[in-house]
Structure formats: C-alpha cells, structure tokens
Amino acid sequence: MNTIIFGEGLERVAVRPITSDIFWITHCLGDKAQDIYKNYFGMLPNAADYSGHRIVDYPFSAFLVRDEKSLMIDTGAPRQQANTLKAVEYVLGDKSLDYIWISHVELPHAGNAPVLKRRYPQAQYMTVRGGEQYALHGLEGAQLMAPGEVINLGKHQLESVEPLFVDHGLSQWAYERTTGFMFTADWAHNLHEPAKNECFMFLDEMENAGYSADLHCDDVKVNAWYQFPWLKWTDPDEVCAAVDTFFARYDTKILAPSHGNIIRGDMARYVPLIKEGMRQAIAM
Amino acid sequence: MIRNIVGDVYQIGEYVEGSYGYEAVLVYVIMNHQHPILIDCGSQLHRAGIMQEINSLLAGHTPEYIFLTHSELPHAGNLQQVAKQWPNIKVIVSNVMLPYIEIAPILPLSQITSEAAGKTINIGGRTLKFVFATLKDQPGSQWVFDTQTGILFTGDGFGYYQSAEQIGKFSDEVEGGIREIQFRDYHRTAFHFLRWVLPEKFNPDLDAIFAQLPVKIIAPIHGDAIRSDIPTHVARLKQAVANIRNVV
Description:
By secondary structure, chain A is α/β, with parallel strands linked by helices. Chain A is globular and about 50 Å long. Chain A has helices at residues 33-41, 48-51, 81-92, 107-110, 113-119, 203-208, 213-227, 236-249, 267-283; strands spanning 4-6, 13-17, 22-27, 60-65, 71-73, 99-101, 124-128, 143-145, 150-152, 157-161, 173-176, 181-183, 254-256. Chain A has a single domain (4-204, 251-265), classed as Metallo-beta-lactamase, Chain A (4-Layer Sandwich). In chain A, the strands form 2 sheets. Chain A has an 8-stranded mixed sheet with strand order 1-2-3-4-5-6-7-8, covered by helices on one side. In chain A, a hairpin with a 4-residue loop joins β2 and β3 (22-27). Chain A is 31% helix and 18% strand. By secondary structure, chain B is an alpha/beta fold. Chain B has a single domain (3-247), classed as Metallo-beta-lactamase, Chain A, CATH 3.60.15.10. Chain B has helices at 47-58, 73-76, 79-85, 99-102, 180-190, 199-212, 230-247, and strands at 3-6, 9-18, 21-30, 37-39, 65-67, 90-94, 112-115, 120-123, 126-132, 142-146, 151-153, 161-162, 217-219. Chain B starts with a strand and ends with a helix.
C-alpha cells in the first residue's frame, strides 16, 4: 500500500504504512500552507525562511496500530473528521478499533475521539493517569495508564511513556516495544515543503531529495520555540542530558512526532541534531 | 453563580471537585454598553447553566466578540452553543493559534481574528491589550488586559484550587487572600513543564508584565478573581513556581 489521500485542502488526510501494521494518518495543507502559516511564522526575524522563499508545511498526525487488538494513537482534528474516518476504515476494513489512545486533549490530537467512538462503540478511551477532571476534557470513562504500563495488542505492545517536553498538563508519549516505534507528540519535529513534494514523505526520503541535517536542526529549533515557549527559562545542559537519558532508555528505531515527517532509523545521527535544535531554541 | 467583579465586568461559571479542592471553570463578561465581550465560554459539562447565566447578564444584548484565552474544552467547550445563538459573533485568538484546526469548524474562518501579543483592539470605545501569556498550556494561549478596569485575564495562569467555603469569593473576601500552596497545587498539575523552569529566568519575564501594565485585578479562568494586593499574589505565584521546581 502506498500513500492514499482522502479529500483536499483544509480537509485532506493521507494514510501511509510505516511498518506492515503501523499506519501514519496525517493531515497537512500542501499548497494552502503559505496562506495559513504566513502570520504564524511572521513572528520570526527570518520569517521568509519559513513562509517566503521557503514555504513550509506542518502535519497533524495520528497513528493506527493494526493487530489482534487495534489501537489509534491520537485522532486528528474535527476539520478533517470525515477523511480521518475514511482513512481508519480503509486500514481496518472489517476489523474493529479497540483502543483510542490520547496523548493530550488539544483538538488536533483528541478532537475526533467522539466520532471514532461513535463509529467503533466498543473502543476504549485510554489516556494518562495522574490527572483529574477527565470529564471536563471530554475523556470521561477513559482507562488510565501510568508511565511504564503496557497494552498488549498481539504482536505489538504499547507502553505509556512519561513525556519530556509538554505543553498540556495531562500528556503522555508512547513506545511500541516490538518495532521500536516512539511517539513523541509535539516534540522533535521538522517542517516540510509542499513545493518539493515532501508531504507524506519519510525523513530519509526527504534527505535523498535534498533536505539537509542543518535544516532538520533548524526546524526542530523553530518548532520547539513555538511549541514550548517555556524553554527559554530552562538550563540547556539539563535539557540535553534528559534527551540523552531518554534515548538510552528507549531503543528507538522509528521516531514519530505528531507534527513532523517520520524518522525510520539511524537515531544515532538524529539525536545530536535534535539536541542541538533544543539548545538553540532555548537560546532564541 | 454571577458575580460583579468591578464596574461592568462579571464572572460566571461552575466549580468542579477534585482531590485538591474545587476548581473553578469561569467565563468573564464585559458588558461594555451595547458591545459585550465574552472571555472564554466555559465547559460543555456546564452548558445549560453557563448559557443561562450569560443570557441573564446580557439581558437581550448580543455579544460582539469572544476572546478565547486558548481552545481547550474547559475554555471553548460552549463555542458551538454561543455561535448557534449569536451567529455573527467574532472570535479573537492568539496569532500563534491555527484556527482552522485548533477551533472546531463551527463558525466561518472569516469570523475568527488572530491577534499578536502587544497589539490592542478597540471594541465600542473599550481598549483591550493582548499580552504574552507567561504561563501557557497551549502555544496559542494568550492573556488580555482591559485598560478600563485594570483587569488582566490570565487563562490558566494564576489558577488555584479552593475550598468549598471559598467558592465564589474574591481574594479580598478570603482571609489572607490566595495562599502559595493553592497556586502551587494548581500550577503543578496544569503546567507540568514547570519542573524544568528556573525561577531566576522566569521571574523577570513575569515581573515585566506587571511593571508594564497597571494591573488592579487578576482574573484567571480556574479561580475566582484576585482583587486584592496584586504584588503579594504575584510574589506567591513566583514562590509556587520555585517550589514546584525544587520539589519535583
């Protein structure tokens, strides 16, 4: 199966396999990116590097693990609701969706949870333990997971991971133990250029077409600066040490952030770039 | 519960119970003569009560704008109902928010305006200033300052848990005001990133806001308005941030 695209413009959603049973379900704007992101990147002193001579785009992704029990990591946003459902149905066919796993409750991550629950009423919401007021955030009745707890899906085992860098208070990341798939929600993501046909590409494919390590580092920096404005109040050495500890603990073979292209290997090369991007974000 | 804070500004909303006490989920209403402004619109869990209170306050007037401090459900959960009742209402959000995907597709995008921190807007003769939210739980979080009353609306920032006896009471109606532990418990759960934050870097940025703006009242969404002794409460918030860093 190659990339399948449902819909267009603000509503389009693509689905692409990362492994034989883990699927990337993602929305990005393509040729509409400049219109939407002009003001967003306008805050930067070098705005033209993102919305001028280089026009970048930014995906919003969910991931579907198809197994004896199937699980969706995040759900996408209501604007792409119909096409997200089509993508899920395309992957699952007659199979059921058993778990709707929510990293955090922002609309682009959890906004389609209700419609997925209506389509697959047996699906169980899963989210992070340790909070309160789940009903206030639309997750009443969710099964709660503490970091380190694992859901056994069959061939796949999904572990809840204590996130390093978050915006929302109730957040979790996920690690799939069989494949080394690490989901880091809002952290460690690059940007891509629709004009270079980089939408829905894996990062190694982008690099083969000219995307560079320097660009990756710079993209991680800019995204971290936007996503985590509190970084400027942190100690860069402490942050980078935590990144090292994290990747020493989790043998990551696939890095899948919500808002970037998927890294399919060679983490030893990417981790230093991500750390440098974080260091630069802290200094911005 | 409708309460007048000062002048023509009111707070309404509900309180939910948790292990730390009660958490307010508020909406602020600036009556502003014939040009009412809503600050957030509350949780979908409290839709009927909140809409009833908004309507009671507005007494037939149509709100012209709603400012969303950010787009989480406890803040924007009733936007659909607000848009249904007042379909011409204009929404204001931070320029770091992406309305097409961060706000449910309820209103035409042309009715949503993005404003940058530092900008001002005049609504029916009233000037509101947009303020960089020092404490954000979404990148698109923003604070807003009402120049007429000196109220700084701080979204999740300056939230606090309160006892049953404190519900609906402003800080000046609570002996000693809001305590550091109340800020600390709330901010530790709402802003997990504070474990990374060094007070010596954070404090000057927070102080700068209060040095630049003549803040007389702090109005968080998750705590009743703080009407008394702003410097003391800012100091307690800074102490809470320091304690979160030190304890975690």
